[in-house]
């Protein structure tokens, strides 16, 4: 595995993020996850619902404080967003959210909202219409209100607004899952193309592995607050290392008309407030060993005792 | 092992107690803002002229101390169950309240009972007959209900029913000359029932009817509206559709599947409505000469009877606390998610 | 929840439908009529509302359609002039409540923490107290006058707005466009102003419309108790109170009461329809307010 | 390739539905056979759910339906509510999209499983309870006896959907309408539910109408596939044919939009 | 359905359990005679306590014996000797003794309660077991007229002392005396609530010749408007506070007793220039006096009311004849206003907002005065306030203009000397001692005269001077309208205790 000499654009090390609700046990939504995104690289983050993908993404943007661990963007530590303006050094991280209906302010024209992005980047040359054009929408749409757009179009506007801020890292938190099947692939491709074109990194979160496979250079699989496997998409797809990744891939039904039932993974994602001991996956793992029940595999790129690295090479 | 419900209740009680302290503080501050000197209000004309007596009176009532200390004294008294002595009636405020509070509770209780029965009933009917004539009629009527000025309605009702039609009895809680039933709860209807005094019971119910209905009109309107929208909301839920898909008869679906969840917001509103009933009593009690806490509050507030006003504040706080607890417990009874989890 | 929204939400497009509802039409017509009466009272009123020259306690009849009061003043004229007292004051009161409660609630919702806690606990305190009794004590403390009555009602009215606004702000605060704004470098204030507040005003205005009735009831209730309007102001609540003394002359109390009823009803009709039309979900937020 | 062997358990002919004066279905034709899974695909808003609801007479307030829904020789649309109630749950059952909302949050699982059983089958409390435990075991809920006493919120999403399926199966219906039963679930959980449905269909000879917008799911379990667009069925046929050689351009466009080209094999 | 519990059960003449229901707007603080001063309290105490002397019916010109058999006033007017009646007993059967009398009267004086002024400067002594002497330093010819005041009711001193009665302001007996009575009157207190109702029951062992007629008397706190409805429906038998307007429409089968009451409504204009530069101007006062439409006010007060020509009500010795009453003169008022040098004056008129006197509210009067003075060119701003707050300002002499009433503490003109400069009411209008020597002298003279004719002359003179230059404008004496069921007998209005419950019977 090679790493750019300059160091990764985004590096998340042993990140722990907790949700505290009064009267309830602390939910450790991200429990020591590590992740890297290089400039110009597209990383797909996949995992089951509730495994902590959104929480991780929000932490990277500073929308959530970290309980421990480190988040560096371009070498700059991410600080939680308070009442004051966001640190200008951090406006290089922008996010596109899941719900196209709440990702735009219904009371403002989309042009004005895109202009906010331009202002954040100090960009006086470009106009909102230019950005609309880049995401494939007519220039004239800048004067419209969000309710005049379809879901897919809104998501394009949201992307345009994020891009206007000239991000070095773009995060998409399931940006396509609320869209019609026909729009999903289009929007995903658009996001990838625009990010790569502008030299930014893209962290693309989805539970839809087929889309991730289509656009991601690298894939990171998350399970119950931890990244259990990372690797180049094709490699992971062809030869998933972690039993969870395997199960995940096998569960995708393919629309080939062959009538093959997907493979089932028994059980559900455990409660992050009360995770199992040892390897977090062991209660559902078909290949569980004794060591899995006791010790957590704290290594990568495949965090599984089956893939324990040779003790010689510390990275 | 403390269940989540118990923990929840403990938290609510603590909050409510803090609120009560807050209420006493507010009433204390407010009553001290009132222009006018309680000394003049409470001492005889001549005595006011005698500085020694005034000073003595002030000292007796702790009015010579700084305000914070007066407040602490007041709180300390509360802890010992001493609400002070009313400057107007010269009786312990507790005794005054013991007389007036049951009267108001009887009135407000009757009103809330009527409102719950009628309001929920109308609301359910309106929701089930949505967009039909009966729904429209009920909606308009419920709006009228919440729009009528209570004080005016009380007057009109009194004039029409008592004076013109002569179907309701006059002022007070029972017929004059009738001896109240032996005090157990202080609610004449209940006490009469307990002691088997049927004449008193019928008299008490008769006297209660008009003011309670006047008072209830607003809450009936309110509850009709909320029940209607709550039932409609529940009717739109998947689990109701699922229940209907199971082929259960409409009655079963309504009573087992719809009403229960619909009651959750209705209970909240009913709890709040009880508070508004207590407010309404101030206006209604005056017209019907009902010897309740509303009249007492009005009289105390206008005569600057500090201990009495603070006593009323406290009672009201406690009633609020109790209602909140009742509402919370009902939540737990209705919704297992509060109980278990 | 992968596909949360089944249908688009055409808030704006549904508004005109509101006007197709008869209740809204009745409400609007009556409210407008009252506003016209208030504005044109000097032209419409047959008599000087303060002149005490007519026969006393004359029943409704030609000459004075709604009769005269104890002092020989024309009740119809007084009611018309009363609209100039009650309606603007009520509107002012509601506006003040919206501003005070809305701002406090927005701060509580957006900034959370101790600011919010303090504000909301204060609101709880006021909520724990029956409105009329609290308003009564406040009015008694400040002295009887309409201005003070408005203040007294304001004291009891703002928490409802604070609560609702806070609830709405809490909801909107987590909406993704607000977060996007923050990510683009909006300060908290700008975010509140640009992204949050405009998106909570709709429901709050609906609540305010619904609240006009309640506010008028409360204000006139205070006047009825003698804690509001000063004589000889033709305030409706005070007029009802004057009718108490002369029970037999039913017209003295009846007509001002009907005036209150119609105004309150008109605004309730309006508010009800607006609420249905704008967003059925705010019903939940509004239920916080009883009386 | 269509086999005309068995008679349709349920057939929908020319179903039209309008809601509030707005037409949403313009004449839907569908036939569902016993022992087979009939997949109904189509984009959002095409009327899949409305078709399913129309069968049970559960259309939203203000709807009108016309056409014919034949079941056991009778037209369900013509049936009075009382008789329709005898069909609902007993002969035709339905599973909804979101298990989090389709189970009543305030009633125990036992209650929800046995109430209609006792109503339709006239069995006693005890027997109903035993049957319920058996059903839960059948849909593979661990500790069925104990699970009966719990409330829906104490189960995970996948388990809730299994319970919802158990509820639907309680009276041994002939037809099961499943409206996107897996959309709210994760893929790994979805696989289990699909297997369960397929098994039930094969073992009990149930006729299943499976509504979904996921062509992968369709391909995995459906025997027949119908594709809807704008309130009309545009194409019907055996799974292999519709997914591999679609006749209607709309079906083709659906397939083209998929991120992974059809035919390409998973690892 | 709810009509069953109606009012039928309280027929007054039913054979068993005769109950009388009296409706009145409560002005009640206590039933302790030593503290009582309010009208409702006086009704209660009149029925439950006997006094040394009393009045017969409504005749207040001659005190008659009660617990005292006879009385004698020394010729210098300083010493009153009373002979106690033998055989009078308290409700518990114990005899009324001279010690009880001394204790009761001393208690009133020294406890400094509201009525203590009645005995200011009076020495109370027992000469023997049946003789009491009351000695004053200055001539006190009013004393026999004061003694009938129910506040001077005689307590059973033993019972009272057992319950905390003392002879100083630390007295603690009030609470007890509010729950039970310790007097010798025809009725005893069964229950007592200052805000809702008082129930009296007959004293079966009453010593007097005239036994109580009713077994039970319920005195309820009812707004005057409601009183009318109640009495018309037969829900009550006596309504005490109906205004003239309310009585006007009264119908069928009821008796109406109309008399002018002894209450005098008056307007005061503050003479303290620190309080108001305007009202302390004598010409301004004149303008107000001339500007008021007295018949117009009378109209509001309704039938039975009369214009007050002076501060002393018409039924008392020394009252001014009606022809000396002030008259309206708008031109004169305007002229006076012009002379006063204040232009477009605006003054505040304070009055108690919720108080009614015999069903008459202050507000319509104030509104009419406001309208009257507007014609003169004086802008009056009305500032109603709850009694307590208003009283506070009034008693402290802080009101610019005040609308108040005076009810006699005892039916003697000397009570009205309080209106002189430097005296109780005089001070309330900022009229300090020495502000008007002339009036002061007239007052002093009136206070010191003893014989009736001289007193009449002196009080007339005092009032004429007061009307000419004083800050008070007597307005009206509202009617006292007592409405009763046809069956009730013995209804008499009394200026001090309104009505003697024990005097009521039934046909
Ligand atoms: N505000 C919150 N308070 C408490 N717990 C939370 C909060 N937000 C998320 N969680 C919990 O944290 C865990 C991770 O949530 P997160 O939203 O990050 O998951 P996710 O992977 O994004 O899931 P999905 O695919 O459903 O979006 C879940 O168990 C969730 O219940
Ligand atoms: N309650 C309703 N009131 C009015 N129109 C409705 C209602 N429910 C559905 N519709 C309309 O009916 C049409 C068909 O909706 P339906 O829910 O059947 O679509 P669907 O194919 O199930 O879509 P999805 O895949 O989103 O579930 C849509 O145009 C929708 O807008
Ligand atoms: Mg997420
Ligand atoms: Mg659907």
TrEMBL record, chain A:
Limits of the ABC transporter domain: 10-249
Family note: Belongs to the ABC transporter superfamily.
Cell membrane found in the keyword field: no
Record-linked SUPFAM superfamilies: P-loop containing nucleoside triphosphate hydrolases (SSF52540)
Protein name: ABC transporter ATP-binding protein
Example GO molecular function: ATP hydrolysis activity
GO biological process, one term: peptide transport
SMART domains from the UniProt entry: AAA
UniProtKB/TrEMBL annotation, chain B:
Top-level taxon in the UniProt lineage: Bacteria
Molecular functions (GO terms): dipeptide transmembrane transporter activity
The protein's name: Peptide ABC transporter permease
Transmembrane segments: 12-34, 107-128, 140-162, 204-223, 262-288, 308-334
Sequence ranges assigned to domain ABC transmembrane type-1 in this UniProt record: 101-331
Keyword Amino-acid biosynthesis: no
Pfam families (alphabetical): BPD_transp_1 (PF00528), BPD_transp_1_N (PF19300)
Protein keywords: Cell membrane, Membrane, Transmembrane, Transmembrane helix, Transport
PROSITE patterns noted in UniProt: ABC_TM1
Subcellular location: Cell membrane
Membrane topology, as annotated: Multi-pass membrane protein
Family stated for the protein in its record: Belongs to the binding-protein-dependent transport system permease family.
Gene3D superfamilies assigned: MetI-like
Gene Ontology CC terms, in alphabetical order: plasma membrane
Automatic annotation (TrEMBL), chain C:
Lineage: superkingdom: Bacteria
Keyword Transit peptide part of the UniProt annotation: no
SUPFAM superfamilies xrefs: MetI-like
Membrane-spanning intervals of the chain: 21-45, 87-111, 132-157, 204-229, 249-271
Bilayer disposition of the protein: Multi-pass membrane protein
Assigned GO CC terms: plasma membrane
UniProt keyword annotation of Lipid biosynthesis present: no
Primary localization class, coarse: membrane
Residue span, ABC transmembrane type-1 domain: 87-271
Location in or out of the cell: Cell membrane
The entry's keywords: Cell membrane, Membrane, Transmembrane, Transmembrane helix, Transport
Record GO biological process: transmembrane transport
Protein family per UniProt: Belongs to the binding-protein-dependent transport system permease family.
Protein known as: Cytochrome c550
Organism: Microbispora bryophytorum
UniProtKB/TrEMBL annotation, chain D:
Pfam families xrefs: ABC_tran, oligo_HPY
Protein's cellular compartments: Cell membrane
GO cellular component assignments: plasma membrane
An example molecular function term from Gene Ontology annotations: ATP binding
Biological process terms in GO annotation: peptide transport
Record keywords: ATP-binding, Cell membrane, Membrane, Nucleotide-binding, Transport
Domain ABC transporter intervals: 10-255
Source taxon at top rank: Bacteria
Main localisation: membrane
Lipid bilayer topology: Peripheral membrane protein
Name the record gives this protein: ABC transporter domain-containing protein
Organism name: Microbispora bryophytorum
Lineage: Bacteria, Bacillati, Actinomycetota, Actinomycetes, Streptosporangiales
